[in-house]
């Protein structure tokens, strides 16, 4: 765990204090406690908060920053208990409807109505819709949004005489990975997540399952985890990463694949569109060498996911006004301008505002990927991501509370198969039993 407290102009390592305090700060604006994932855009946010947000508002922001799997557990515990230790947390479009249904989140519509400078209508519609509760009210606002696409080394493909299709299929991707692997001894064909976790290996794998014609559950809540289509997709994914993927694939997640791509160790990477900002950053060794195409398909027209790291206010917070001020700043147009000017336009937390995609500075810096990203987000369909009806929304997840546990346990079985400790069929037969137990609870309702 990394706990960081931002005050004044200093970044001080220390323990985050307890939340819910309305005591005055050095700027007389009070303080809030923010729990967030340690992804690159959040790291940049920490660097800018004291000098800009705190200096302008007097509100001190105490950050607690943790890796993805750990932060999800901490947020779930604190919000479920309504302990009030954290006023604001990074939650996704998976958690938001569930947390809202449980009464764990503060409704944001009153703030959105009053804060006209925030311009909520500028937020991309798929992102807005994904952060609504079942009651149609808004419970979070996006910090950045993403879909998924395929990133590849254009220079390496040109060197080897390979051509990336404008809309690749997974079979074509496998053939290209084998070509690179065979002809470039210093580079693997592809990097794919293999790290256990419902938000790690299961995110890309589930999109592969969708486009191969599979699903976790059918419309009648029958579990389909060891059905032929699910097995075929998983065997394809596992074989691809084992034969042409990175070393230590079972321990590789988003961060490890980003590092592999940045360091020139792999020719292709299928993952979040958010990764492009890091690859095209001014200090990236591969800046300008990467091409971007839509998520590979098989039986569907598209297969990119829809995801946002968003800001939610805990219902138990007694600092909701200050919490909204922070959210409004961190998710607003001015913050995007700030990042663009001080850090670089390629690093702007994108994927959430239409205005950013019309910004000349961003268009120039993100020319290689911004249009592909915008199209991927626009084409994502959480209600119909595959070839059959689903009982719950979600592309790379199933929008039910039980999926955090189910997805993580299934991911452990998949990672074990990637590590060669069992076959895919064995992994999915065990997973089917877990899925059936979840499905029974829904069929009985």
Reading the helices and strands in chain order gives EEEHEHEHHHEEHHHHHEHEEHHHHHH
**Cα shape:** globular
Low-confidence stretches are: 1-27
Q: What profile does the largest beta sheet have?
A: 7 strands, mixed
Structural class: alpha+beta
Instruction: List the total number of helices.
Output: 17
Helix content: 40-55%
Number of strands: 10
Which value, in Å, is the CA radius of gyration? 21 Å
**Overall pLDDT metric:** 92
Main sheet: strand order: 2-1-4-3-5-10-6
Strand content: 5-15%
Terminal CA distance reads: 40 Å
Describe the structure using short key phrases.
445 residues; alpha+beta; seven-stranded mixed β-sheet; three-stranded antiparallel β-sheet; 17 helices
Give a structural overview.
This protein is of the alpha+beta class. The protein is 42% helix and 13% strand. Helix 8 (202-211) packs across helix 9 (228-244) and helix 16 (403-418) runs antiparallel to helix 17. The longest helix is centred in the C-terminal third of the chain and has 20 residues, at 424-443.
């Amino acid at each position: 765990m990394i706990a960081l407290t931002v005050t004044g102009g200093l970044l001080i390592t220390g323990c985050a204090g307890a939340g819910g305090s309305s005591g005055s700060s050095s700027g007389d604006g009070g303080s809030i406690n923010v729990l967030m994932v340690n992804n690159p855009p959040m790291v940049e946010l920490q660097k800018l908060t004291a000098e800009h947000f705190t200096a302008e508002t007097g509100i001190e922001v105490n950050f607690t920053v943790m890796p993805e799997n750990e932060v999800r557990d901490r947020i779930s515990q604190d919000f479920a208990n309504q302990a009030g230790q954290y006023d604001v947390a990074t939650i996704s479009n998976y958690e938001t409807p569930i947390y809202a249904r449980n009464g764990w989140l503060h409704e944001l519509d009153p703030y959105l109505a009053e804060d006209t400078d925030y311009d909520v209508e500028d937020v991309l519609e798929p992102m807005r819709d994904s952060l609504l509760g079942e009651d149609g009210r808004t419970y979070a606002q996006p910090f950045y949004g993403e879909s998924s696409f395929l990133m590849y080394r254009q220079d390496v493909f040109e060197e080897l005489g390979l051509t990336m299709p404008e809309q690749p299929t997974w079979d074509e991707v496998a053939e290209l990975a084998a070509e690179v692997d065979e002809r470039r001894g210093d580079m693997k064909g592809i990097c794919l997540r293999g790290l256990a976790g419902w938000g790690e290996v299961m995110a890309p794998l589930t999109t592969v399952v969708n486009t191969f014609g599979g699903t976790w559950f059918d419309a009648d809540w029958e579990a389909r985890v060891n059905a032929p289509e699910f097995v075929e997709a998983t065997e394809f994914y596992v074989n691809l990463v084992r034969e042409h993927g990175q070393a230590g694939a079972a321990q590789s997640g988003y961060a490890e694949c980003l590092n592999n791509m940045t360091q020139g160790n792999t020719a292709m990477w299928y993952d979040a569109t958010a990764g492009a900002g890091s690859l095209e950053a001014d200090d990236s060794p591969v800046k300008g060498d990467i091409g971007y195409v839509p998520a590979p398909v098989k039986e569907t027209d598209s297969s990119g996911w829809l995801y946002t790291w968003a800001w939610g206010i805990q219902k138990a917070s007694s600092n909701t006004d200050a919490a909204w001020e922070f959210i409004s700043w961190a998710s607003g147009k001015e913050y995007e301008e700030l990042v663009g000017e001080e850090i670089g336009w390629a690093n702007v937390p994108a994927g959430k505002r239409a205005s950013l995609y019309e910004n000349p500075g961003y268009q120039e810096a993100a020319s290689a990927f911004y249009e592909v990203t915008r199209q991927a987000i626009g084409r994502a369909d959480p209600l119909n991501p595959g070839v059959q009806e689903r009982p719950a929304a979600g592309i790379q997840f199933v929008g039910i509370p039980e999926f955090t546990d189910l997805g993580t346990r299934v991911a452990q079985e998949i990672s074990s198969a990637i590590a060669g400790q069992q076959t895919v069929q064995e992994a999915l037969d065990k997973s089917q039993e877990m899925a059936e137990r979840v499905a029974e609870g829904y069929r009985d309702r």
